[in-house]
């Protein structure tokens, strides 16, 4: 996805809206991204993928600081 598409997806995700692929309008599959042990801070992330056009993005549940 482009940076703008990813920003729109992230905004929709944090608002709790339904996420559809910005390219083909297919509902996106969601998979939680578990925190890594080697990172000192915990991020709450979700990996979204499109089953049709195969684009993907990792979205933060909260706005990164």
In short:
The chain is an alpha+beta fold and 65 residues long.
Written account of the structure:
With 65 residues, the protein is an alpha+beta fold. Helix content is 20%, strand content 23%. The protein has a three-stranded antiparallel β-sheet with strand order 1-2-3, covered by helices on one side. It is globular.
Order of helices and strands: HEEE
Helix content: 10-25%
Structural class: alpha+beta
Uncertain stretches: none
Mean pLDDT across every amino acid position: 89
Major sheet strand order: 1-2-3
For the secondary structure, the number of strands is 3
The outline comes out as globular
Radius of gyration: 12 Å
Query: Helix count, per DSSP?
Result: 1
Strand count, sense and barrel status of the largest sheet are: 3 strands, antiparallel
């Amino acid at each position: 996805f482009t940076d703008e598409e990813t920003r729109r997806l992230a905004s929709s995700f944090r608002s709790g809206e339904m996420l559809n692929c910005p390219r083909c309008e297919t509902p996106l599959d969601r998979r939680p991204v578990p925190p890594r042990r080697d990172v000192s801070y915990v991020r709450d992330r979700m990996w979204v993928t499109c089953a049709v056009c195969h684009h993907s993005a990792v979205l933060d549940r909260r706005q990164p600081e």
